[in-house]
# Entry
Amino acid sequence: MKGANSVADLVAAGLMTPEAGRAVSAVADRYAVALTPYVLERLAGAEADDPLYAQYIPSPEEAYTAPSELADPIGDDSHSPVKGIVHRYPDRVLLKPLHACAVYCRFCFRREMVGPGGDALSPAELDAALAYVREHSQVWEVVVTGGDPFLLSPRRLSAIVRALADIPHVAVVRFHTRVPVADPARVTPELVSALRAEGVTTWVAVHANHAAELTAEPAAALARLADTGIPLLGQTVLLKGVNDDAASLEALFRALVRHRVKPYYLHHPDLAPGTSHFRPTIAEGQALVKALRGRVSGVCQPTYVLDIPGGHGKAPAAPAWVAEDGTVEDFTGTKHRYEP
# Structure
């Protein structure tokens, strides 16, 4: 089975009517469309209210850019000293070896930068990026992202990990990927082996937004990673119409933990162009975080975060449980007095 890389492919697969396809043609011209064969098969027969459909199928609402939305909503460009590097925090950098993804999520915060044939680093540019890491001794962790680094061949992944392992001050290499839930067959033993090298600890952060994404094939892909001892983190975006209710988040975080993935961040959606229909309010997000406190154990609780527009980094956005006057709220909403 082939994947889908255009509105015409989505129409041919029965996921859009020709009329609906024409309504999003301008959106698809601006923001990339791609579904792997695996996702296309999973979406067979799905409609617009399906939580997976909304994540991958373009909608006319994407044509509207809200006044507050930005082409570079988290300020990557302003913190990029050399191509492929983002150095926002003192002890860690992003390394972006490519800007292509297996699938293109409709809410992506880098949607203006990624796409088919997305700008990949040349060998010379990759060398320059690695040289930057080598020259900055405060860099303890390198986050390999993109695009999706799991699109690289095992050979190229291994070369990057080994190069980073040879830098004495780099202790941790963290990969951010959607592939385990979007193209799980790509997570082969060869790819998993390529992620590790003596001298660094490898972590993998997996992007999943709904429990329906964690079916048998993704579960097996996650197991291939976890069985080798690679610690797994979960990253989730809070999305209207996809997971913005306590039951959906509970099911997702329980499923992640069951598959040995620690929920790490629950992201408030960034101010990416054409994504306002996905964004709840901060207050709505905080209410959901409160609701989760009594529903799932601590190991299932991610940190709710907001990426401050302009490149100022992430800020915890969780509600306050302890008031300045010493009042403490428990998970049922009951307030208690704390006397130190």
